[in-house]
Amino acid sequence: MSDQKEVIVSVKNLKQYFNIGKPNMVKAVDDVSFDIYKGETFGLVGESGSGKSTTGRSIIRLYNPTDGHIYFNGQDISTIKSHGPKMKEFRREMQMIFQDPYASLNPRMKVKDIIAEGLDVHHLVNSEDERDKRVRELLDMVNLNPEHMTRYPYEFSGGQRQRIGIARALAVDPQFIIADEPISALDVSIQAQVVNLMQDIQKKKGLTYLFIAHDLSMVKYISDRIAVMYRGKIVELADSDEIYNNPLHAYTKSLLSAIPVPDPEIEKTRTRIDFDHKRPFLDDQRLQEVLPGHFLYCNDEQAAKIKN
Amino acid sequence: MDKILEVKNLHVDFDTYNGVVHAIRGVDFHLNAGETLAIVGESGSGKSITVRSILQLLAKNGTISQGEVLYHGDDLLQRSDKEMDKLRGNKISMIFQDPMTSLDPTMTIGKQVAEPLLIHNNVSKKDALKRAEEVLRLVGIPNPKARMNDYPHQFSGGQRQRIVIAIAIVNYPEILIADEPTTALDVTVQAQIIDLLKELQQKIGTSIIFITHDLGVVAGIADRVAVMYAGRLVEYGSVNDVFYNPQHPYTWGLLDSMPTLDTSESDRLNSIPGTPPNLLNPPKGDAFAPRNAYAMAIDEEEQPPFFKVSKHHYAATWLLHPDAPKVTPPASILKRYEKFKTLGGNVENV
Asked: Is the minimum CB–CB distance between A246 and chain B shorter than 8 Å?
């Protein structure tokens, strides 16, 4: 990673625990640090329960972090008050696209009101005409027919709903968007449409994405850099090609070996690498840079070995 | 090869508030003994309805308006519900998609696995539980003897799906229908479950119908593949035929819209534009025509019949008609044709 790249989001030692002090305490995110650069797509992968969604939700402050800091454009946002004016200001810059396009749109609201909700909250439009005009622009941007702005969510297919979700996120003109499994509820033929759309918009607006997913081939395709999460920790972080061509952590290797490929000959020869879940982490291990831009959760001895 | 199941000209309609939905519009396929047939398609293409029709497990508003389901030559659609009960969970059993909802949360897993034995076979409870324990061991539940008395919530998602599989195979079915059995699971668990199904197939010789929308999974498990779109099959053949010599533009689109690990970010994904048709008013011609960049005038007018590509490979597209103009498939498909040649197949009609 060159040093000239501007950091937009910086996560430092983030911890997000639930049920603190109770027997069922969960360390969903356990001491995670990473930087996201302006204009890139940062992929966060892991299996269910790895803490990838929780990380995203902590960054946008849907939770109050247990410990650690989150910096957005240099400003610490981990402690700003939930309902204060600062939070409102910050939420305009950071938006989220959710996984389930059926559950994330209010079924009783018209599409134009769903999309314009952010505009209303932030007083970004002065008249009904201006509001409608902006909604039309947004629908047009996500390739939906602006004539449909008075319809309700049930009248749209899954892919179209996800476009509405994207339009809603774009309405307040944010710099940074967290997309939490935005395509996993969609059919294969529709997934590509939504991914292409997200990339087009990124280019047009210079957006930065945090793309959370479990579909590794799609994550590799869309991301510049990828972090692999396992049990609340980042076990490996590198450029997406590097992660795939030179995985170092046993868990990353196991995850990559399990991806099914639409090619029968490759499938015939594929060997699955098992990962031993019994003692994944040792006390002397931490996330450290072992190759330029390639971070691995390991101890100093292992790191020195790889460096040479 | 021995055909143990044959579905002929299946039509299924659903009565809805908006009118009659023609969910299945003439589907023919067969299952050979000992093989795995994968049915691939998007949501709403009718793949689940097709296999549910085999066991007559349709929702109340669904009717099989036409067709035959021949099991060893005997039409299952003529059988009463009682007669079907003898078959379900016995000779033909089914694994459902969601292991979280297909187990009874109030019943120990030992009892749930033993239940099909007690219903279908004249065995004592003791013997049934003993057999249940064996099967749980077979599907890879560690320490089954102790865990027989546990409830579903005490198991992980992958283990629950193993239990669902144990229930389905406890009677050594001839046919196992697996409806998206791995969709709700993580990739590493998915890989384990697929390995398990392959292993079980070898051990007990069951034939499998595997439904999925994931072409990667299909490539790993299927002997033959049938591709469905809008209530009809559009292409079927051996797994190599469909993956290396696909002929239908929809199959091209499906294969082309998936990024492989070689796809770099500079290559744009080739998406299939538009959305599937509404089957309240099925189109007159080829249902895929509005989304098909290769569509011709006749596609709007008339449904294409199946054209023979090779001995066991058929595709329903007018592009295979002798008078059709030659078209060039997407680049990724041409690469697949190259691979087909090296595998010793002939690319005909291209």
From this structure: no
Is the pLDDT assigned to residue B350 strictly greater than 60?
no
Question: Rounded to whole angstroms, how far apart are CA atoms A49 and A214?
Answer: 11
Q: Is the pTM of this model over 0.90?
A: no
pLDDT (tens digit per residue) in B249-269 = 999 999 988 877 666 666 778
User: For the residues A250-258, what does the mean pLDDT come to?
Assistant: 93
Among A159, A187, A261, select the one facing B213 at the smallest CB separation: A187
**pLDDT, tens only, B200-215:** 899 889 999 999 988 9
| Domain range A7-246, CATH architecture | 3-Layer(aba) Sandwich (3.40)
Stretch A60-86: mean pLDDT, rounded? 92
Give domain limits for chain B.
3-222, 227-342
pLDDT at B157: 84
Q: Are B223 and B208 in contact (CB under 8 A)?
A: no
CATH code of domain B227-342? 3.40.50.300
Q: Mind telling me how many Å the CA of A218 is from chain B's nearest CA?
A: 6
pLDDT of residue B348: 47
Res A110 pLDDT > 80? yes
Closest Cα of chain A to B13: distance in Å? 21
Chain A interface, mutation test: which of B100, B161, B186, B263, most A Cβ atoms within 10 Å? B186
Closest chain A residue to B261 measured between Cα atoms? A217
- Could you tell me if A121 lies within 8 Å of chain B, comparing CB atoms? no
In A, minimum Cα distance to B253 occurs at: A189
Q: How far, in Å, are A120, A183, B155 from residue A86 at the CA level? A: 17, 31, 44
pLDDT at B349: 41
Task: Enumerate the residues of chain A whose CB falls inside 8 A of the CB of residue B261.
Answer: 217, 220, 244, 259, 261
Please tell me whether the interface predicted TM-score (ipTM) of this complex is above 0.85. Answer: no
Longest dimension (CA), chain B: 68
Q: Give the pair of three-digit tokens for residue A6.
A: 């501007």
Is residue B148 within 8 Å of residue B132, measured between CB atoms? yes
What pLDDT does A1 receive? 45
Distance from CA of B325 to the nearest CA of A (A): 26
Token pair for B185: 């699971």
How many angstroms away from the CA of B256 is the closest CA of chain A?
9
Which residues, 6 or more positions from B119, have their beta carbon under 8 angstroms from its beta carbon?
B89
What are the residue boundaries of the structural domains of chain A, listed by start?
7-246
- What is the residue whose two structure tokens read 């000779």? B91
Q: Which amino acid is at A147?
A: E
CB proximity B273 to A under 8 Å: yes
With 80 as the cut, is the pLDDT of residue B99 above it? no
Per CATH, B3-222 and B227-342 having the same topology is answered yes
CATH code linked to domain B3-222: 3.40.50.300
**Exposed/middle/buried for A250, CB within 10 Å: 0-12, 13-18, 19+?**
middle
Q: Average pLDDT of A165-177?
A: 95
User: What confidence tens digit (pLDDT) does each residue in B292-331 have?
Assistant: 999 999 999 999 999 999 999 999 999 999 999 999 999 8
Q: Which of A189, A190, A217 sits opposite B259 (nearest CB)?
A: A217
CA gap A222, A243 in Å, rounded = 14
Instruction: For B160-188, give one letter per residue: b (16+ CB within 10 A) or e.
Output: bbbbbbbbbbbbebbbbbbbbbbebbbbb
Assess contact for B316 and B248: CB atoms under 8 A: yes
